[in-house]
Specification:
The structure holds two protein chains of two kinds. By secondary structure, chain A is mainly β. Chain A has three helices and eleven strands, in the order H-E-E-E-H-E-E-H-E-E-E-E-E-E. Chain A has a single domain, classed as Oxidoreductase, molybdopterin-binding domain (Sulfite Oxidase, Chain A, domain 2, Alpha-Beta Complex), CATH 3.90.420.10. In chain A, strands 1, 4, 5, 8, 9 and 10 form a six-stranded mixed beta sheet that branches. Chain A has a five-stranded mixed beta sheet with strand order 3-2-11-6-7. In chain B, a hairpin with a 4-residue loop joins strand 6 and strand 7. By secondary structure, chain B is mainly beta. The longest helix of chain B has 8 residues. Helices cover 9% and strands 38% of the residues of chain B. Classes of the chains: A mainly beta, B mainly beta. Chains A and B meet through loops of A and strand 6 of B.
Chain lengths: 207, 88
């Protein structure tokens, strides 16, 4: 956690003028201009007055933010490409939110922690190695395309981990639990790949 | 409940028939969470995600969920306390 360099190259290179859009589409994916809604259950309606975000698990002291406190965290715009395991890819999606680095900076992480489970309102979970969410690779967004994130797309706030399949970008996220071991989440425990890198087509665990 | 992603469970009868070997949409299940008993066809189906999720129409908890890969189906049915299937 000591190295927090900004990987501008990662996000910068894909927007270089002249970059072929086809080079940005992972294998087996097709391009879409729409924004399909995927869901495993009813859309939770979470009043902002009761919304909260928590970091717990392998930390010295758990941390909790109210909506108001969360909004006052350092935030910025993000423009990223996203790929869903159901085979659509959407380029240059525009979000606003706080980096996971800035969230983790608020807690003292136990050195044993190597993984986390993102937990959502409605019961959804997904697992991630810490190495996939630090160094500006992941953020929690509350705006999409300049407007408040709509509940069907994960509002009030969702995790976004653009370099992995979009099931890792937990909608309605309410916290991160730091863990020593990788523990499969909702889809990872039912045949989907434990990590889900679209460039390696890591769709399923057994195929 | 006016979620546009919600479909009648009959829409997923094909996957169910493949797993159970016959049409179970008329079979009776009991929800582990709330105890409601009813036909499988009364479950609420969410089919637009990476897998299929069937939820209890009373308490909305998950009764069954599965993922279809190119070579297999993974089924989690712990939300169904039992199922009762007629023999033909
Ligand atoms: Zn029930």
């Amino acid at each position: 956690m000591t190295e927090r360099f900004t990987s501008r190259g990662f996000f910068g290179k894909r927007r270089d003028a002249g970059t072929d859009r086809a080079d940005r589409i992972p294998p087996g994916q097709y391009l879409t201009d729409g924004f399909p809604v995927l869901s495993a259950g009813p859309t939770p309606q979470i009043p902002l007055e009761t919304w909260e975000f928590t970091i717990d698990g392998l930390v010295a002291e758990p941390m909790r933010w109210s909506w108001e406190q969360f909004q006052s965290l350092p935030s910025r715009d993000w423009t990223v490409d996203i790929s869903c395991v159901t085979k659509w890819t959407k380029l240059d999606t525009r979000w606003h939110g706080v980096s996971v680095d800035d969230l983790l900076a608020a807690v003292e992480i136990d050195p044993r922690a190597g993984f986390l489970t993102a937990q959502s309102y409605g019961g959804y979970t997904t697992n991630l190695p810490l190495t996939d969410v630090v160094n500006n690779q992941a953020f929690v967004a509350w705006q999409y395309d300049g407007a408040p994130l709509e509940p069907p797309h994960g509002g009030p706030a969702r995790l976004v981990v653009p370099h992995l399949y979009f099931w890792k970008s937990a909608k309605w996220v309410r916290g991160l639990r730091l863990m020593e071991k990788d523990q499969p989440g909702f889809w990872e425990s039912l045949g989907y790949h434990i990590r889900g890198d679209p460039w390696r087509e890591e769709r399923y665990s057994g195929d | 409940m006016d979620d546009p992603l919600m479909l009648d469970a009959n829409a997923v009868a094909g996957d169910l028939a493949e797993m159970f070997g016959f049409d179970v949409s008329g079979s009776v299940h009991r929800c582990t969470n709330c105890g409601n008993q009813g036909a499988v066809a009364t479950l609420l189906a969410y089919v637009h995600g990476p897998g299929t999720v069937l939820r209890c129409c009373i308490c909305h908890e998950i009764v069954m969920r599965w993922v279809r890969t190119p070579t297999r189906i993974y089924l989690d049915a712990r939300g169904a306390a039992y199922m009762e299937m007629g023999l033909s």
